[in-house]
Amino acid sequence: MVGKLMVVRLVLAVSVLTSLLLTTSAQTQTCESQTFTENKVFASCRDLSHLSSYLHWTHDQASGKLDIAFRHTGISATDRWVSWAINPNNDLSTSMIGAQALVAISESGGAPRVYTSSIPGYSTQLAEGDISYPHSGLTATRQNSEITIYATLTLPNGTTNLVHLWNDGPVSASTPSMHSTANTQSKESLNLLSGASQAGSSGDSLRRRRNVSTYYSVWFPWD
Q: Which domains does the chain have, with CATH numbers?
């Protein structure tokens, strides 16, 4: 009788342990296994809820410095633009208007051309221009079906939350064309400290990483 009881307890213990391991595995984010050029490492990362995209960041509250790597995967077309942007008004409902964007254009599958763009409204060519955030280290890479944008932005003092948005679309004559009208939910309000997001995302919560090594006007309806 005692022997049978011990066997039952052992089976229960193994079942509980297996359940815990499966739960931990299910909560592991894809971003945690991603690596970058020059062995760049970021403090936090997040699997974004749309467009097979991922955001990695390190935020220094004291200086306002925000180091980011935005990665968009699953890009099969050779000519494609990708963009990640911040809305300085923190307005999620009209996030595109006034957004300050980092844009990468990849043509013929080669190294992307990367630049900044201030988006005044829905009718835009994502034209190159200055943005309101001081920035440095703006680069982009393409490896097979992945485009990654890197940059360091200086945010206003005390910034802990931001509204950010991301998208992609075709390229015509080296100019971004309108993205799919199905891609209107790729935006969210993100807390840089906790990784929590609101309204527009069902993505997973924050993971803190360890040391793991012809011109025309087009309409971009993000909102």
A: 43-174+182-206+215-219 (2.60.40)
